[in-house]
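Q: I'm writing a short explainer about Diaminopimelate decarboxylase for a general audience and would like to include a description of its predicted shape. Could you first generate the structure from this sequence?
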Amino acid sequence: MSPQDLLNITKEFGAPVYVYDAEKISSQYERLTKAFEGVGNLRLNYAAKALSNISILRLMNSLGSGLDTVSIQEVKLGLMAGFKPESIIYTPNGVSLEEIEEASALGVQINIDNLSILEQFGSKHPDVPVCIRINPHVMAGGNSNISVGHIDSKFGISIHQIPHLLRIVDLTQMNINGIHMHTGSDILDIDVFLYASEILFETAKNFKHLDFIDFGSGFKVPYKTGDIETNVEELGKKLTAKFNKFCKEYGKDLTLAFEPGKFLVSEAGYFLAKVNVVKQTTSTVFASIDSGFNHLIRPMLYGSSHEIVNISNPDGRERYYSVVGYICETDTFGSNRRINEISEGDVLCFNNAGAYCFTMASNYNSRFRPAEVLWFNGKAHLIRHQETFDDILRNQVDVKDLFEPSRKVMAD
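A: Of course. Here's the predicted structure. Afterward I'll give you a sentence or two in plain language.
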């Protein structure tokens, strides 16, 4: 996509707006598939939580992807988008047994990450195939909020609880058909990933009827020109060799599964917003845009750095700006960034806005969530309308009849 294409989208659909490039999503999917071409059976399950618009899910399904879900709502979205139940894996955390049973009744692959639910589900449904999420106690991820495989994590069954796990499986005679782990997001050191995989292989030896081993995901993508990223090609070669060796020892050709989310959609996404005010203070030049962390919370929540480009003035001289939003709290997208000179009315483009951006948007300050647009085959397609005031009120119940205007007694 060109900057002019993005500007044309803001003219047609307004701003702020999210835009996703289908070609980039497809190329990322192909890149990951090629990196593991030495594996006999490979399954990529797109992590729906990264970007769950039903049109994006339909695109993923058309590429041959499976679907990784973490809620019953994502399961139902996946089925609506055309995914077959057997191509959906459901990996919740801390949900009720009732929700897991509801997902199971829909025919999807269940993935359980705690002993309590494992025992309850296995006792009631011993014939239903179940995957088990293991916590390998490996610290990985670019931020403490997205590192989920360490010893204090709420996710997964500890490798130190394997004897207890095996006792439950033996007593319930439940069907364990998969082993899973996910250590975190923004993993850069593939040696850490490979170390965790060895733990998973060792754990898998305890189960004689596996169909797949799921290594999660968490591959780091570049957030700016020259940024470092996970070398998936190198990881593919090394993990493929280890996986094929394990399958030979196990005596069965298993499926190697991944759950990429950010890797597939992050770089395909752009967030476009107009500049309302350029404000000079004693030490800073602020560019205030018509958005805030209600639309893009990752910089405030994770300290993430999204490259910001002035697509209205791509050839202007660079100056230092702090780009801020309209939320009446600290609401900063980037401090002292070198950006081509900004004028009021210019459109700023935030790169890497495909993953965990719109899906984490809210109506904070009673603001509308923005539109979403898919760029496909050289054309812009609206895949979500910008919200209206009716959307803000849609599920509210106005109990105005309970209240009467206050009548103050006036003194003589």
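A: For your explainer, you could say: The chain has two domains: 36-265, 269-393.
Q: Perfect, that's easy to follow.
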